Amino acid sequence: MRTVETLLGGQWEASGERIDVHDPADLRAPAFRVPALRPEDVTRAYDAAEAGAVLWRRTSPLERSTVLGRAAGLLRERVEEIAADIATENGKTRAEARGEALKAADFLEYYGLLVGRGGYGTLLHDVRPDTRTSAHQEPLGVVLAITPWNDPLITPARKLAPALAAGNAAVLKPATETPVSGLHLARALHDAGLPAGVLNVITGRTAEISEALLGDPRIAAVTFTGGNAVGDRLRERFAVRNIRFQGELGGKNASVVLSDADLPKAARTVAAASFGQAGQRCTATSRVIVQRDVYLEFTKLLLDEVAALRTGPGLDDGTTMGPLSGSRQRDAVLAAVAGAVEQGATVIAGAKGAGEELPEHGCFVRPTVLADVTPAMDIWHDEVFGPVLALRAVDSFDEAVDAVNDSAFGLAAALFTRDLGAAHRFADRAECGQIAVNLTTPGWDVHHPFGGFRDSGSPFKEQGAEALRFYTRVKTVAIHFG
Ligand code: NAD
């Protein structure tokens, strides 16, 4: 068991009360301990961020870029140590954790390069003589970033890289279950020369620190990734105060397999998209809509892929699917499967009861496939956020598109086909922010704009150059020199 310090005002703090962080593969003893900050510590974090924001906005973009680039290098150097900690606190496999650490480094490097070019404003013509007018993008001030446990390093990096590159200071509140990964990011930025106060990390029990965290008058913008229950409440709360809010929320992502698809490839890709990270990705495929004439053949290929998965502790060699992030998540997933069965679905692979021969002290659920799922069932509509895939047969392309759009969410959708026309029609008609054809629903590069429609998110996209719009505001300046 290791104690991990948190970063406040440029100092590493470990003192005071602690909270335990568990490895979901083995709940018998805590893996880490982090500080349980008090509301007054949160206020100190905002004091530091307020001062940090003034200093950092005056720091040249090239220097900010250099710090982000150095931090990216440190994450890459430390990848094995960081991957082990991600896998320990989150449960994902070592390979998945390694990929996460390297992608977090890419976010830092990418936004450093974007702003390092120096110019992010526009010189405008002015009808008035002897007048020069320009539009500048300037930082907002102090950004609050609240992140979930499922990608505990990438999600903070996806938010902090553009926020800091643009010249803001930040207060990061990582998920209580997985604070250590975000602290690796803070450590890399600190060691790379990020000035004191520009980044502060709040660890602790959410109920105790929530008011101090959300109510501080110095918050200029809030970026949140998490569930709809919390996200919707926060959106309303910040709207009243006219504070900019970005919410990346849930999904119920569908993949469509048409009759002409490369079926082995579709089965392989769908299995990876559904059971990678034990289905705990906002973009995970959780519904598969298959054209009826290939339904049986596709299902057989899919079950072969599922049978080849090895469920076990994320750090064990050979594990291809880790545990769920905690016992609450495991119980919720098993309850969703039981509810689907009660409503008429059939389990054709996976969870029949709790755990089977899997270790009882871990939060394991087998990769689960449900057949005979209909739109009348809750499992068709509700986000499960676990390794559970619902299958449904349809008769036509139009019926498949309607099935994809039969959801309050609109995050990601995929189509498997060899028909280029169908690919374009699908891209036009699917009501989702991310569309993939013959690819998995997860897996977007740092420069690809990312975000959902409808209940999945807000209009502000993350990733790519577009993300900088959320973290900046435009000021128009006219100077008469006649
Ligand atoms: P959650 O909404 O329970 O928690 C998210 C974060 O909010 C955590 O850090 C939590 O501690 C914090 N939080 C909760 N209540 C708070 C309060 N009152 N005050 C301050 N902070 C508070 O979500 P979760 O269970 O951690 O994550 C799973 C959810 O995240 C899923 O619904 C998933 O779809 C979603 N998600 C979405 C995306 C996306 O990009 N669209 C990506 C990943 C995860």
UniProtKB/TrEMBL annotation:
Organism of derivation: Streptomyces poriferorum
EC class name: oxidoreductase
InterPro entries the UniProt entry points to: Ald_DH/histidinol_DH, Ald_DH_C, Ald_DH_CS_CYS, Ald_DH_N, Aldehyde_DH_dom, Aldehyde_DH_Superfamily
Signal sequence bounds: none
Keyword Oxidoreductase: yes
Keyword Oxidoreductase: yes
Protein's UniProt name: Aldehyde dehydrogenase family protein
Keywords linked to the UniProt accession: Oxidoreductase
Gene3D superfamilies reported for this sequence: Aldehyde Dehydrogenase, Chain A, domain 1 (3.40.605.10), Aldehyde Dehydrogenase, Chain A, domain 2 (3.40.309.10)
GO molecular function, one term: oxidoreductase activity
Domain of life (superkingdom): Bacteria
Domain (Aldehyde dehydrogenase): residue spans on this chain: 14-477
